[in-house]
Design goal:
Low-confidence stretches of chain A: none
Helix content of chain A: 25-40%
CATH class of one domain in chain B: Alpha Beta
Strand content of chain B: 5-15%
Shape of chain A: globular
CATH topology of one domain in chain B: Aspartate Aminotransferase, domain 2
Low-confidence stretches of chain B: 478-482
CATH superfamily of the largest domain in chain A: Type I PLP-dependent aspartate aminotransferase-like (Major domain)
Radius of gyration of chain A: 25 Å
Shape of chain B: globular
Strand order of the largest sheet of chain A: 2-10-9-8-7-3-4
Mean pLDDT of chain B: 96
Largest sheet of chain A: 7 strands, mixed
Order of helices and strands of chain B: HHHHEHEHEHEHEEEEEHEHHEEHHH
Number of strands of chain B: 12
Oligomer: heterodimer
Structural class of chain A: alpha/beta
Distance between the termini of chain A: 62 Å
CATH class of the largest domain in chain A: Alpha Beta
Largest sheet of chain B: 7 strands, mixed
Largest interface: A-B, 201 and 199 residues
CATH superfamily of one domain in chain B: Type I PLP-dependent aspartate aminotransferase-like (Major domain)
Chain lengths: 449, 482
């Protein structure tokens, strides 16, 4: 058999072995202990031709449902937004997607400039002075921020709102456990962080308070109130933005006094992909840049004085500082950041505001209609963006099964994360849900109730 | 090249959104929580396409040419895998849609875990980590949890001086103290030095095998004995797994934990810096500590399970970089056992062939058998005033992406070359010829090398200026940019 994806003929191999003065390929592995050398082939399925592989992959993919052929009312950290065709065409340019981290800037100006533009756009959206070139996802961005504040302050106590995405909270908890930091949780009240409880729980020992806006439940936090409590006690404020299209409508966290803003960029041009790859973004103030994890792209000039871009401030990073580095991150989500900068360029400032308004208006239309149905009761009465929670007359699992029969992916059953929120369902509405989709959802729910 | 902001013109837009089809209502969010201003570029669709297409032409990928970046395994990324990952059933699956309509995704992940177990000789895998460094972190978190569970206080991790920087950095993130162990004259772990520092408070050692010099740690079983006999664990940084596919397995070498880089060994493209995926495999004793959720199979049905009381918890939202897994899975299926073994064989053949070709022109610090990569030294060129960075930049003029330079740190003026299996003999010959010519230039006209590159979209960039006066975003109306 000739090797797929490798070009040598038998003759080439022979010539190369001869050049090396070797008899067989095995001679190249002669230094490996006999006991360790595999004598039988790996137990894997037989190789497939491209035709067979294509058929197999299609068959496997079709065992899934997906949001293209259904209407989708679930969000909770992964949002069904429209992605313009241009985005996929640009990220499919092989010059981008088959390149490595831009270690050689002279042949990487394309990706470097795109990331520089990305850093500029995210900095503007969240109102932070500096944004890094990306981290793995929204959850790890938050965990990195928590490690960062413990390094800045030297304190080991982190306060996190229970209205933060439960999976983000779990990731932060995992990182804290390893880093030997203490995590305390603040209760939520009416879908947002309880200021009363927060006031009670913070102390001089707290490094930071972590909240999400809009909260996991879709409600809009009183960030100014939270900021006041934090900064009175010299505690840093970390704000996580999981649905960043909301930034087209809401005051940026930086303007509300956040010290670090993290978030999930999936909404901006990255497909759902069953949970990844997504895009973790992070921004902070210049004064904390020494503690800031991740790659940073900076502008500089070349030998002729022309503008160009490089990876910079690398003295913070693992390959230089090794065990003294504040983070170990190396590979990030560059291609997802590229998708985001293309997406945001297409939308522009008018488009993002319009998009946020579409999500808001359609979500409120759906909320009002569901509230009319007998047996469906809103759980939180608080301003929200595009997600909201209802208590259901029957088990949400049964409802979702019924909805699926009508090609509708229903909301998230919240009980899996919040055992107290029994029989509740969290719905999400985006610009991809037409009025007809929403009316159909309401009609099916009415019939169930 | 202008920035997208600099071609912005008020009133332009790149996409039309659907009209609001529900009755509009007043926004009930308090005024003080609403956004007042927003700055994003205003450009047309064709502006966006031309701008980013122009940028792509200022970028070099594997599809453009040879990319022998050591320790990065820049092999060709088969196109069919890209298409597979974009099938609607994968690309538009929501992570919280019910398991009932996610069977294809779960089956793929379940089987990928199984294949990776077989390839590495481990007992169980998690696919959750998003990159190699994330895999390391996950592995070390499990180590920590394992010793906590056993009520053993082990606070130190050993790393060789030639390890990837991520290894010690990951250990620090887990609040381990890092002990660095010097390599011996053969470029391998010094067994005596290891015996000396392997004490009861050491949690384990992180090794890459073949190591970052490209040399196989032939004493790996003795190393395992030393570490295991004092109760420690062996961690394998699988960045260099390309050399061993189907030849030998970390599990058989008695590693307890291994991470793989799907974006290296398993051909998923690196995307200009990511996304990658860094699955972690463990031996049975560590399985209870793997992140949640795990994937189960009962009869023909696949499901996610969260019932793992000893688990370290989650390291990422949802299930990992699924889109990357699809490509790695397709790659394994295309090649099968025989194909994977040939990947290792040809990658090692190519590296040795290229090493022999380059040997006359550079110093070789360690005269050892090499596997899929090798590290040369530019010490003799440095004496003539030409640094390795100059040689690397000059390679750009010859149309090649340079190898990794100045790593590992223990080799003076290091150049770490990993050709991979997907390059033909003529390419290796041409690359060797280019370096031979550059060597001649160093004798004849060193300035041309020291001032290179001369053919790229920008010439050598001022790194010092970039870090001394950091400009990390574009600021409108700034005179610097007009």
């Amino acid at each position: 058999m000739t090797l797929l994806f490798a070009p040598h003929s038998e003759k080439d191999k022979q010539e190369m072995l001869e050049f090396l003065g070797l008899k067989s390929i095995d001679d190249l592995f002669a230094d490996i202990d006999e006991k360790l050398v595999l004598r039988t082939p790996l137990n894997l399925p037989s190789s497939m031709s491209e035709i067979e592989l294509t058929r197999h992959m299609l068959m496997l993919s079709e065992k899934n449902g997906e949001v293209l052929h259904k209407s989708c009312f679930i969000g909770a950290g992964a949002y069904n937004h429209f992605i313009p065709s241009v985005v996929n065409h640009i990220v499919s340019r092989a010059e981008f997607y088959t390149s490595y981290t831009p270690y050689q800037p002279e042949v990487s100006q394309g990706m470097l400039q795109a990331i520089f533009e990305y850093q500029t756009m995210i900095a503007e959206l969240v109102d932070m002075e500096v944004v890094n070139a990306s981290v793995y996802d929204g959850a790890t961005a938050l965990a990195e921020a928590v490690i960062m504040v413990s390094n800045i302050t030297g304190k080991k106590e982190i306060i996190i709102s229970s209205a933060v995405h439960p999976e983000y909270k779990e990731v932060v908890k995992t990182y804290c456990s390893a880093r030997e930091l203490m995590l305390k949780e603040v209760e939520f009240c009416n879908g947002v962080t309880s200021l009363e409880d927060l006031e009670k729980i913070v102390s001089k020992n707290s490094a930071a308070v972590v909240v999400q806006n809009p909260t996991f439940f879709g409600c809009i936090e009183n960030l100014s109130g939270i900021e006041k409590i934090c900064h009175e006690k010299e505690i840093l404020l970390i704000v996580s933005v999981v649905e960043p299209t909301s930034l087209g409508m809401l005051k940026p966290p930086g303007e509300c006094g956040a010290d670090i803003v993290t978030g999930e960029g999936q909404s901006f041009g990255n497909p759902l992909n069953y949970g990844g790859p997504y895009l973790g973004f992070m921004g902070t103030k210049n004064k904390y840049v020494r503690f800031f994890p991740g790659r940073l792209v900076g502008a500089t000039t070349d030998a002729q004085g022309r503008r160009g871009y490089v990876l910079t401030l690398q003295a913070r990073e693992q390959h230089i500082r090794r065990e003294r580095a504040f983070s170990n991150i190396c590979t990030n989500q560059a291609l997802n950041a590229l998708a985001t900068v293309v997406y945001l360029s297409l939308l522009g400032k008018v488009g993002l505001v319009e998009l946020a308004n579409l999500c808001y208006q359609k979500a409120h239309y759906a909320y009002d209609a569901i509230a009319e149905i007998n047996g469906f009761k809103p759980v939180f009465v608080f301003p929200f963006y595009n997600e909201f929670v209802f208590e259901c007359p029957i088990s949400p699992r049964k409802i979702n099964k019924q909805l699926l029969k009508h090609k509708i992916i229903g909301g998230l059953e919240l009980e899996r994360f919040y055992p107290d929120l029994k029989n509740t369902m969290m719905f999400c509405v985006t610009e991809r849900n037409s009025k007809a989709d929403i009316d159909k959802l309401v009609e099916v729910l009415e019939n169930i109730a | 090249m202008k920035l997208i902001f600099e071609i912005s013109s008020p009133g332009r837009r790149g996409i039309e959104l659907p009209k609001l089809d529900v009755p509009p209502r007043e926004v009930d969010i308090p005024e003080n929580l609403l956004r007042k201003k927003l700055f994003l570029p205003e450009v047309s669709e064709v502006d966006v396409v031309r701008h980013y297409t122009a940028l792509s032409r200022m970028n070099y990928g594997v599809d453009n040419g040879f990319y022998p970046l050591g320790s990065c395994t820049m092999k060709y990324n088969p196109k069919v895998n890209e298409d597979a990952s974009r099938l609607p059933g994968f690309m538009f699956a929501h992570p919280y849609q019910s398991e009932e309509i996610s069977q294809g995704c779960l089956e793929l992940m379940f089987n990928l875990e199984k294949y990776l177990c077989e390839i590495t000789g481990m007992d169980a895998f998690t696919l959750q980590p998003a990159a190699g460094a994330h895999g390391e972190l996950t592995g070390l978190m499990m180590m920590k949890a394992y010793f906590r569970h056993k009520k053993e206080k082990r606070t130190k991790i050993i790393v060789p001086d030639l390890s990837h920087g991520t290894n010690p950095a990951s250990a620090s993130m887990c609040a381990f103290d890092v002990l660095t162990i010097k390599s011996n004259k053969e470029g391998r772990v010094d067994l005596d030095a290891l015996k000396d520092i392997m004490t009861e408070d050491v949690a384990g050692i992180m090794l890459t095998n073949p190591n970052t010099l490209g040399i196989f740690e032939k004493d790996i079983l003795k190393i395992a004995d030393i570490v295991h006999s004092s109760g420690g664990l062996l961690y394998c940084d699988g960045a260099n797994m390309n050399a061993l596919l189907g030849i030998a397995r970390p599990g058989d070498m008695r590693f307890d934990i291994v991470h793989l880089n799907l974006h290296k060994t398993f051909s998923t493209p690196h995307g200009g810096g990511g996304p990658g995926a860094g699955p972690v495999g463990v031996k049975r004793a560590l399985e209870p500590f793997l992140p949640v959720p795990r994937i189960n199979k009962t009869g023909k049905n696949y499901s996610l399970t969260y019932d793992c009381p000893l688990s370290i918890g989650r390291v990422k939202s949802f299930y990992g970089n699924f889109g990357v897994m699809v490509k790695a899975y397709a790659y394994i299926l295309a090649l099968g056992a025989e194909g994977l073994r040939q990947v290792a064989e040809v990658s090692v053949l190519n590296a040795n062939y290229l090493l022999r070709k380059l040997r006359p022109f550079f110093d070789l610090t360690y005269e050892q058998p090499y596997k899929h990569e090798f590290v040369l030294s530019g010490a003799r060129q440095a004496k003539k005033g030409v640094r390795m960075v100059d040689i690397a930049k000059r390679l750009l003029d010859y149309g090649f992406h340079p190898p990794t330079i100045y790593f590992p740190l223990i080799v003076e003026e290091a150049m770490m070359v990993e050709p991979t299996e997907t390059e033909k003999k003529e390419t290796l010959d041409a690359f060797a010829e280019a370096l031979e010519k550059i060597n001649e230039e160093i004798e004849r006209d060193p300035e041309i090398v020291k001032t290179s590159p001369h053919t790229t979209s920008v010439s050598r960039l001022d790194m010092v200026k970039a870090s001394k006066e950091p400009i990390l975003k574009w600021i409108s109306h700034s005179n610097d940019y007009i």
